[in-house]
Design a protein that fits this description.
Length: 199
Protein backbone atom coordinates (compact mmCIF):
# COMPACT_ATOMS: atom_id res chain seq x y z
CA UNK A 1 0.00 0.00 0.00
CA UNK A 2 2.78 2.41 0.93
CA UNK A 3 4.53 1.76 -2.38
CA UNK A 4 1.42 2.62 -4.40
CA UNK A 5 0.84 5.69 -2.28
CA UNK A 6 4.40 6.88 -2.92
CA UNK A 7 4.00 6.28 -6.65
CA UNK A 8 0.79 8.29 -6.59
CA UNK A 9 2.54 11.19 -4.82
CA UNK A 10 5.40 11.00 -7.34
CA UNK A 11 2.91 11.20 -10.22
CA UNK A 12 1.22 14.26 -8.69
CA UNK A 13 4.58 15.94 -8.15
CA UNK A 14 5.76 15.32 -11.72
CA UNK A 15 2.44 16.52 -13.13
CA UNK A 16 2.57 19.73 -11.12
CA UNK A 17 6.16 20.37 -12.22
CA UNK A 18 5.27 19.94 -15.90
CA UNK A 19 2.26 22.25 -15.56
CA UNK A 20 4.10 25.05 -13.79
CA UNK A 21 5.99 26.42 -16.83
CA UNK A 22 2.78 26.55 -18.86
CA UNK A 23 1.01 28.35 -16.05
CA UNK A 24 3.80 30.93 -15.92
CA UNK A 25 3.49 31.42 -19.68
CA UNK A 26 -0.29 31.77 -19.46
CA UNK A 27 0.14 34.36 -16.70
CA UNK A 28 2.28 36.43 -19.09
CA UNK A 29 -0.41 36.23 -21.78
CA UNK A 30 -3.23 37.13 -19.39
CA UNK A 31 -1.34 40.07 -17.88
CA UNK A 32 -0.83 41.53 -21.36
CA UNK A 33 -4.12 40.39 -22.86
CA UNK A 34 -5.67 43.82 -23.33
CA UNK A 35 -2.56 45.16 -25.03
CA UNK A 36 -2.57 42.12 -27.34
CA UNK A 37 -6.20 42.34 -28.47
CA UNK A 38 -6.99 46.01 -27.80
CA UNK A 39 -10.29 47.37 -26.51
CA UNK A 40 -12.02 48.33 -29.75
CA UNK A 41 -14.06 45.15 -29.42
CA UNK A 42 -15.97 46.73 -26.54
CA UNK A 43 -17.70 49.12 -28.94
CA UNK A 44 -17.39 47.55 -32.38
CA UNK A 45 -17.75 43.89 -31.31
CA UNK A 46 -14.89 43.05 -33.65
CA UNK A 47 -11.20 42.64 -32.81
CA UNK A 48 -10.39 43.78 -36.36
CA UNK A 49 -13.21 46.18 -37.22
CA UNK A 50 -14.09 47.25 -40.73
CA UNK A 51 -15.50 50.76 -41.34
CA UNK A 52 -19.02 49.36 -40.98
CA UNK A 53 -18.15 47.62 -37.71
CA UNK A 54 -16.91 50.92 -36.28
CA UNK A 55 -20.47 52.26 -36.27
CA UNK A 56 -21.89 49.32 -34.30
CA UNK A 57 -21.62 51.09 -30.96
CA UNK A 58 -24.12 53.69 -32.24
CA UNK A 59 -26.78 51.05 -32.91
CA UNK A 60 -29.24 50.34 -30.06
CA UNK A 61 -29.31 46.61 -30.85
CA UNK A 62 -25.61 46.33 -29.95
CA UNK A 63 -25.64 48.18 -26.64
CA UNK A 64 -26.63 45.17 -24.50
CA UNK A 65 -24.27 42.63 -26.05
CA UNK A 66 -21.40 41.10 -24.09
CA UNK A 67 -18.11 40.80 -26.01
CA UNK A 68 -16.74 37.25 -26.20
CA UNK A 69 -13.36 36.09 -27.48
CA UNK A 70 -12.59 32.51 -28.48
CA UNK A 71 -9.07 31.67 -27.23
CA UNK A 72 -7.22 28.66 -28.64
CA UNK A 73 -3.77 27.11 -28.61
CA UNK A 74 -3.89 25.58 -32.10
CA UNK A 75 -0.81 26.16 -34.24
CA UNK A 76 -2.57 25.32 -37.50
CA UNK A 77 -1.20 27.49 -40.29
CA UNK A 78 1.94 28.47 -38.38
CA UNK A 79 4.26 25.91 -39.96
CA UNK A 80 6.43 28.63 -41.50
CA UNK A 81 7.08 30.08 -38.03
CA UNK A 82 7.86 26.84 -36.20
CA UNK A 83 11.50 26.37 -37.15
CA UNK A 84 12.94 29.40 -35.39
CA UNK A 85 13.57 30.98 -38.79
CA UNK A 86 11.86 34.33 -38.30
CA UNK A 87 14.23 37.05 -39.49
CA UNK A 88 13.30 40.07 -37.38
CA UNK A 89 15.43 42.35 -39.54
CA UNK A 90 12.92 41.94 -42.39
CA UNK A 91 10.16 43.50 -40.33
CA UNK A 92 11.82 46.41 -38.54
CA UNK A 93 13.82 49.49 -39.48
CA UNK A 94 17.60 49.46 -39.53
CA UNK A 95 17.71 51.65 -36.42
CA UNK A 96 15.84 48.99 -34.44
CA UNK A 97 17.90 45.96 -35.43
CA UNK A 98 20.63 46.54 -32.84
CA UNK A 99 18.08 46.99 -30.04
CA UNK A 100 16.45 43.69 -30.98
CA UNK A 101 19.69 41.70 -31.13
CA UNK A 102 18.98 39.80 -27.91
CA UNK A 103 15.53 38.84 -29.17
CA UNK A 104 17.01 37.60 -32.45
CA UNK A 105 19.30 35.32 -30.46
CA UNK A 106 16.37 34.15 -28.35
CA UNK A 107 14.33 33.14 -31.38
CA UNK A 108 17.22 31.61 -33.33
CA UNK A 109 18.12 29.53 -30.29
CA UNK A 110 14.62 28.07 -30.09
CA UNK A 111 13.75 25.09 -32.23
CA UNK A 112 10.13 26.14 -32.74
CA UNK A 113 7.10 27.86 -31.34
CA UNK A 114 4.96 25.16 -29.74
CA UNK A 115 1.33 24.89 -28.73
CA UNK A 116 0.54 25.95 -25.17
CA UNK A 117 -1.92 23.01 -24.81
CA UNK A 118 -4.80 22.88 -22.32
CA UNK A 119 -5.01 26.66 -22.43
CA UNK A 120 -8.42 26.64 -20.73
CA UNK A 121 -6.79 25.20 -17.63
CA UNK A 122 -4.63 28.27 -17.13
CA UNK A 123 -6.81 31.13 -18.40
CA UNK A 124 -9.58 32.97 -16.53
CA UNK A 125 -13.09 33.17 -17.96
CA UNK A 126 -12.99 36.95 -18.12
CA UNK A 127 -10.38 39.67 -18.63
CA UNK A 128 -11.68 43.17 -18.03
CA UNK A 129 -14.87 43.39 -20.17
CA UNK A 130 -14.01 40.45 -22.43
CA UNK A 131 -15.55 37.05 -21.72
CA UNK A 132 -13.16 34.29 -22.74
CA UNK A 133 -14.27 30.92 -24.07
CA UNK A 134 -12.17 28.08 -25.42
CA UNK A 135 -14.79 26.64 -27.76
CA UNK A 136 -18.23 27.70 -28.94
CA UNK A 137 -19.96 26.42 -25.81
CA UNK A 138 -21.05 28.54 -22.86
CA UNK A 139 -21.79 31.74 -24.77
CA UNK A 140 -24.79 33.55 -23.31
CA UNK A 141 -27.77 34.67 -25.38
CA UNK A 142 -26.60 38.27 -24.93
CA UNK A 143 -23.06 37.42 -26.07
CA UNK A 144 -21.44 38.27 -29.39
CA UNK A 145 -18.16 36.77 -30.57
CA UNK A 146 -15.79 39.63 -31.32
CA UNK A 147 -13.04 37.41 -32.70
CA UNK A 148 -10.52 34.66 -32.11
CA UNK A 149 -7.08 34.74 -30.52
CA UNK A 150 -4.56 31.96 -31.04
CA UNK A 151 -1.43 31.76 -28.86
CA UNK A 152 1.84 29.88 -29.05
CA UNK A 153 3.86 28.98 -26.00
CA UNK A 154 5.99 31.77 -24.60
CA UNK A 155 9.73 31.38 -25.10
CA UNK A 156 11.48 32.72 -21.99
CA UNK A 157 15.20 33.19 -21.41
CA UNK A 158 16.68 35.25 -18.59
CA UNK A 159 14.59 38.44 -18.50
CA UNK A 160 13.21 38.44 -22.06
CA UNK A 161 10.41 36.52 -23.76
CA UNK A 162 8.65 36.08 -27.10
CA UNK A 163 5.45 34.54 -28.40
CA UNK A 164 3.21 34.47 -31.47
CA UNK A 165 -0.44 35.48 -31.52
CA UNK A 166 -3.00 35.52 -34.30
CA UNK A 167 -5.94 37.87 -33.82
CA UNK A 168 -8.70 37.21 -36.32
CA UNK A 169 -12.36 37.58 -37.14
CA UNK A 170 -13.29 34.31 -38.79
CA UNK A 171 -11.42 33.87 -42.06
CA UNK A 172 -12.10 37.32 -43.45
CA UNK A 173 -9.61 39.37 -41.46
CA UNK A 174 -6.65 38.66 -39.24
CA UNK A 175 -3.08 39.34 -38.28
CA UNK A 176 -0.23 37.24 -36.90
CA UNK A 177 2.15 39.13 -34.65
CA UNK A 178 5.42 38.40 -32.93
CA UNK A 179 5.43 39.91 -29.44
CA UNK A 180 8.76 40.67 -27.72
CA UNK A 181 8.74 41.25 -23.97
CA UNK A 182 11.06 42.22 -21.16
CA UNK A 183 10.66 41.53 -17.48
CA UNK A 184 9.73 44.64 -15.52
CA UNK A 185 9.31 45.18 -11.80
CA UNK A 186 5.90 43.52 -11.64
CA UNK A 187 5.44 41.59 -14.89
CA UNK A 188 6.75 40.91 -18.37
CA UNK A 189 5.96 43.94 -20.49
CA UNK A 190 5.51 44.06 -24.26
CA UNK A 191 8.35 46.07 -25.77
CA UNK A 192 7.78 45.40 -29.47
CA UNK A 193 4.98 44.09 -31.70
CA UNK A 194 6.01 42.90 -35.16
CA UNK A 195 3.37 42.23 -37.83
CA UNK A 196 4.30 39.03 -39.66
CA UNK A 197 1.19 38.31 -41.74
CA UNK A 198 -1.90 40.44 -42.38
CA UNK A 199 -4.98 39.40 -44.31
Amino acid sequence: MNRYYLLFLLFIYLFSCSSEPRKNEADILVENFLQIVGTTGYKTFSLRPSPSDSNNYLKPEFTNFEPYIIVTDSLLGWDKFQVGSIDISKFVSMSEIYDLKEYTQLIKGSKKFESLNNIAKFFPNKVDKYYLRFNLEGISSSGKITGNVKFSRVIIRNNIAAFLATISVGYKSGITKLFLLKKGKEKYEIMHEIDLVVW
